[in-house]
Please model this.
Amino acid sequence: MNRRQWMTTALALPMGVPAATETYRNYFGDLHNHGNVGYAQGSLRRAYEIAREHLDFFAFTPHAHWHDIREYENAISDKWINGFAVTRARWPEVLKLTREFDAPGKFVALAGYEWHSTGSGDYHILFPDLDAELTAFDDLAQLQAFARKRGCILIPHHPANRLGHRGANFALRDPEVSPLLEIYSEWGNAEHDRAPFPYIRHTEGGRWTKNTLQYLLAQGHRVGVIASTDDHLGFPGAYREGLAVVKATELSRPAILEALRARRTYAVTGDRIALDLLLNGRVMGQELPYTREREIRVEVTGWDQVDRVEVLKNNRVIHRDFPMDRQVAARGWERPVLIRFEYGWGPWPALGIGGTADWDIRVRIQDGALEDVQPCFQAGPLEEGRRDRILERTPAGVRVQSFTALRQQIDDVSQKAVVLKVRGGPATRVTFALSAPKPVSLTQSLEQLAESGEALFTGEFPRESALVHRLVHEDHYRTSFTVRDTDDGRQANWYYVRVIQANGQLAWSSPIWVEKA
Model:
């Protein structure tokens, strides 16, 4: 797990405002996930087991109430109504497992649930403790009053739905209890209405401009950003469906919630990109008094080639950095490289063969060392008895247990992956050995992988296969830079950072605001 430590640096502000020096770590989690408590799929215990395997924090948020639900054709509203009854009946079980799995310092479990509204939008509520009461509220004002009294956080999700079609009514937003916006999930990307990952998987008509992040920022809403999966197969932290990242002082419930309230957060789509943004020494999510001179410091560490890093001011790009276009430094081999092992190509269901493929993968490193590993495990297929796990991890390599099938996938992508951060040199050799689906192995030197990726086949077409991607040098996955900006103060300004990796995975920081003069 990548828990990258980062220290803010106190800078001399032009206005004489001190910048607090604080030590934060990036913690990755999922604050919006569903299973068979409610009307989704996947057992409750399985969800907690998966979350504990690869996340720092997790909130299971069963569907709980929809006060203005309507009558729909074929009585499909019964699905939701019956699901709410399941949640009420099993709520004590949800709290029991939340307490069982909560282990501050190792894994934080939060209690919460989802509240629906056709007119006001969908929210998930997060409690400050594990004695959460399940209560049905019939309008947003009641829910907000309860949240203020109990110290809860309300997060609107799939915000880019049209108002009146379960899109959030931001005229009713209470900043005290709703400091954040879930801008990415399995629904898609709500940064703006032309952004990658459009809303295509549901029936609500796609992204409505006036409920996208950039439009709301332009209207004066000061919201931080997170992502979470909204997964309905009981798989917290599913790759490509979104993760929330908080910058907290420790892995505890109070610290996580404090970071959420302070908007010290950012969003990633899949890869656990490390992203730091400082403006005159202030961290993302903060508000600064007016100052003409602004020093913007950005640091990014990706898990693939970073295509570009963009600094935006008032929704317009003012600076672009292109790490993947750089020449690899002469001393590039002295720093770790990334190797992505992706697997899960196999027979199409239309061929009438295949099914679920079990994978037992061992990676061995000779004359080098494994420094870190990132899992890229997707939600589908739903298999209660199977697990994606990193079984062993040492400096000499890693063993992975996994399974794939071309069904129940986001955008029909069946592949899963692990990304290895390896320290070595051109002669370092890496062996990828499978004992399942079929015994087969491949050995490549880092020098060979720097020139070309290589495929690993378990048999003749159309049997399962895997790909060792061309390796990535640190010059191409890591960058830091400083941008200087000035402003006359005629209006308040907001700044945020967008990261685009070559493989399409994204990250967005929460904004920093500078007041007008």
